[in-house]
């Protein structure tokens, strides 16, 4: 799920959905080791897209209202979350605050879109699960984990929630909808 390029692609897709996007609130748990590479990727993509990132470190659920208020003061026009476990635990609160602040949002997990988020760009989960089973089988048969190759996902999915887009008064460009693997209407 941490394939190189996923974080930057999420920002690109959010910018395509919201062409006026010039400031994006980014929620991330900087204490998690997977946060730094994602933030670095986002910063690089933001520079090329002309987007200013408003990164907020989330360590507890109490950090969320403060982060959203800071985003509102800086006139954030969109929201991204990085893919740390802590943020998944706070999913419902993030969704609630994003809706209250009327921010178009891009998430790293499909479940967030099913629960009311706008979009997600994700690794194709069924294939990942099958590959994980392959690795477990190999290890149980005596293979050393260090001897197994590291694999990266090669298939990705774009999920768009049109109900959420409508609630935000946002029209998703047809070119983006044509590329979506799943559209929630």
Provide structural commentary:
The protein is 47% helix and 18% strand. It has nine helices and seven strands. The protein is of the alpha/beta class and 185 residues long. The chain has helices spanning 6-17, 35-49, 63-73, 85-89, 91-100, 110-114, 125-140, 162-168, 174-179, and strands at 23-28, 52-57, 78-81, 105-107, 119-123, 156-161, 182-184. The protein has a seven-stranded mixed sheet, with helices on both faces. The protein is globular and about 55 Å long. The model has no long low-confidence stretch (mean pLDDT 91). The protein has two domains: 6-123 and 156-184, Rossmann fold; 124-154, no CATH class.
Layout: helices, strands, pairs:
Layout lengths: L5 H12 L5 E6 L6 H15 L2 E6 L5 H11 L4 E4 L3 H5 L1 H10 L4 E3 L2 H5 L4 E5 L1 H16 L15 E6 H7 L5 H6 L2 E3 L1
Parallel strand pairs: 1-2, 1-3, 3-4, 4-5, 6-7
Antiparallel strand pairs: 5-6
């Amino acid at each position: 799920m941490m394939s190189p390029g996923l974080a930057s692609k999420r920002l690109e897709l959010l910018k395509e959905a919201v062409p006026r996007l010039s400031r994006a609130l980014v929620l991330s748990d900087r204490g998690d080791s997977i946060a730094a590479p994602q933030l670095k990727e986002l910063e690089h993509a933001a520079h090329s897209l002309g987007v200013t990132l408003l990164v907020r470190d989330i360590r507890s659920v109490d950090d969320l209202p403060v982060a959203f208020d800071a985003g509102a003061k800086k006139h954030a026009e969109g929201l991204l979350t990085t893919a740390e476990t802590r943020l998944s635990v706070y999913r419902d609160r993030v969704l609630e605050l994003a809706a209250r602040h009327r921010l178009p949002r891009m998430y790293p997990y499909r479940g967030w879109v099913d629960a009311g988020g706008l979009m997600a760009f994700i690794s194709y989960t069924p294939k990942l699960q099958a590959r994980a089973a392959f690795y477990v089988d190999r290890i149980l048969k005596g293979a050393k984990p260090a001897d197994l190759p590291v694999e990266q996902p090669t298939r990705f999915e774009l999920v768009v929630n049109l109900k959420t887009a409508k609630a935000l008064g946002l029209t998703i460009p047809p070119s983006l909808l044509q590329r979506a693997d799943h559209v929630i209407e």
